[in-house]
Amino acid sequence: MLRGSKVGLRARHEDDIPVLQAELYDDVVTHSRANGQPWRPITPGSKDSQLVVDDKEQGHVPFSVVELDGGTLVGTATLWGIDNHNRSAHIGLGLLPSARGKGYGTDVVAVLSHYGFVVRGLQRLQIETLSDNAAMLRSAERNGFVREGVLRSSAWVMGEFLDEVLLGLLVQDWKPDPQG
Ligand SMILES: CC(C)(COP(=O)(O)OP(=O)(O)OC[C@H]1O[C@@H](n2cnc3c(N)ncnc32)[C@H](O)[C@@H]1OP(=O)(O)O)[C@@H](O)C(=O)NCCC(=O)NCCS
Fold first, then answer.
1. What distance in angstroms lies between residue 166's CA and the mean position of ligand 1's atoms?
2. pLDDT digits (tens, 9 = 90+) for 40-77
3. Which end of the chain, N or C, is less surrounded by CB atoms within 10 Å?
4. Residue 45 backbone class (left: φ over 0; alpha: ψ -120 to 50; beta: rest)
5. Does domain 2-123 fall into CATH 1.10.443.10?
6. Residue 124 β-bridge partners
7. What pLDDT, in 10s, does the model give residues 135-177?
8. Taking the model in full, what pTM does it have?
9. Structural domain boundaries of the chain?
10. Is the minimum distance from the CB of 134 to ligand 1 under 6 angstroms?
């Protein structure tokens, strides 16, 4: 397990999937805002669920997020789009509603940055988020990510096009402890 100050990132367990599906995936608005793909219902137990991990998929590393104190499941975290030529990857995360606003998101970004830079030897990490997602923007910026641009009307979300912000962090600018 990878450890932050409040949360740990571990492999996805079979019994994580129904919890993540009910509390995260089945929230249509949150899913539509966070995933960039159309929501559709997934049959319980389906192998097509995005939450089922394909261990052979080298460029996509999904974790389950747990509280260090007690091990309760609190969300998902993913290093995706890993490009070993350009040595870059993207970060994605989603916390269960009861786990938001406690500093866990900031901690998850710190742990994924450690995984990307130290374990995987990457040079650049990138986050795309809706321009009104204040908690995600702040979680990224607390870890040293800088806003590199606005992707105008790039996301179709529940009936409207919204802007996304592109944030990046280079390994030489990374400070392992989140900064204020
Ligand atoms: C986005 C998300 C991962 C952030 O994680 P979090 O644990 O809620 O965020 P934190 O508690 O670490 O807060 C980070 C900062 O944002 C601020 N913040 C938290 N919730 C906020 C809110 N609703 N509005 C404004 N600011 C907020 C915090 O005060 C903190 O700022 P500070 O460092 O200056 O004190 C989480 O809210 C979530 O899972 N949301 C739904 C899914 C999603 O949007 N995923 C990202 C898709 S790109």
1. 16
2. 999 888 888 889 998 888 899 999 999 999 999 999 99
3. C
4. left
5. no
6. 88, 170
7. 999 999 999 999 999 999 999 999 999 999 999 999 999 999 7
8. 0.96
9. 2-123
10. yes
